[in-house]
Amino acid sequence: MCLIGLLGDVSVTSRRRTTIQNRIKCCLFDHSRRKQQDSRCFHHSSQQVSFKSDPMFSSSFLRLILLLCLVSSSFSSTTSSSNSTAADQTLRPQEELQKLTLIRQELDKINKPAVKTIQSSDGDKIDCVSTHQQPAFDHPLLQGQKPLDPPEIPKGYSEDDGSYENSQLWSLSGESCPEGTIPIRRTTEQDMLRASSVQRFGRKIRRVKRDSTNNGHEHAVGYVTGRQYYGAKASINVWSPRVTSQYEFSLSQIWVIAGSFTHDLNTIEAGWQISPELYGDTYPRFFTYWTSDAYRTTGCYNLLCSGFVQTNRRIAIGAAISPRSSYKGGQFDISLLIWKDPKHGHWWLQFGSGALVGYWPAFLFTHLKQHGSMVQFGGEIVNNRPGGSHTTTQMGSGHFAGEGFGKASYFRNLQIVDWDNTLIPASNLKILADHPNCYDIRGGTNRVWGNYFYYGGPGKNPRCP
């Protein structure tokens, strides 16, 4: 719990601001004595200070201060209750106000006016936004344009691959977005406050190598390289792996890659992920990503920046997937297809059987304007090494590949799109696990599943300290 002793008028002169900032304290209850309060919470002053009369301003600012106090209280409770220094958390109102202002500006860019809002059972709000008002059309090269018509589907495509048609939680209520709109998961202040910075919200940590030596990212993937690639397709098993830290994630996805693993890396990515930092929960969620400069300044998840153009009114990127697979129980997967439109050169995404989600315009990229030079399929986690040991964040089902169907996670029917816009098997597939004692991978081929692999693992275990 937290008491705010004195809140300053943000419109006073800078000299008074300094005085007021020095008086503001977030005081924590001593949990062992519950009601005993620190007397430093209370200040006696002849100065009369007040918030601006705007109720939205004061309520948002108060909400931000209270949220920060609760975070401070939660953190302090994990340390020694006798440590009075840790219990006094000084707030800087002007800095927090600047952050709140920046957050509001970003939210105004991301959250577009809604024609209709749908409440999801997982707590999400899904806004039905006019197609031409979606974030993509903030891009200077897209302003005033309309989404393109569907492209030619790759030759050899078959909907009858046994893929289970998953639903999204928000749509189970029976509500849907009207014609001429698309569903967008609403971004909140709390979402942005969880991010390491407002500027990096919705972006991956920069990394330029596909191994675990860079920023704690670890992979178990199958990949093809050495040719020109115009797309990829696979069915991906959906699970709810345990993610043990807010700043770690677990995902399974397809990568289409061009350029080198340095500053000029281009990627298009789609799959499912669990990311407590980005979404505030541990539901597996359908996601997309792109970058044209190795995650430095371009690209983002989902629709959190201008780029990806959504055309589908029934699928919300970033929304939770249901149902999920269970150990020794039902197995459910999603089918994803990414391919380059031969006519206009844009990269399209399909989710499930025949449901076009939208496209990444070709002008977003440098190397991917032409084609990909590598395709990857598989899992990725972030390992922050809590307490100096390997994380227990799981990949896939949380079980090793050797356990097989119903226990390990899988990718099946791995295909690539060739220069003639034809789907062909992903032959010469290589497999790689950065840390096979933590997460591993085993490949195979059969008549029903074509090229496939099992992958994943529990993270920390006796062989992965």
From TrEMBL:
PROSITE patterns: NEPROSIN_PEP_CD. Residues 211-465 form the Neprosin PEP catalytic domain. Pfam families: Neprosin (PF03080), Neprosin_AP (PF14365). Residues 137-164 are annotated as: Disordered. It comes from the Eukaryota. This is Neprosin PEP catalytic domain-containing protein. It comes from Arabidopsis thaliana (Mouse-ear cress). The lineage of its organism: Eukaryota, Viridiplantae, Streptophyta, Embryophyta, Tracheophyta.
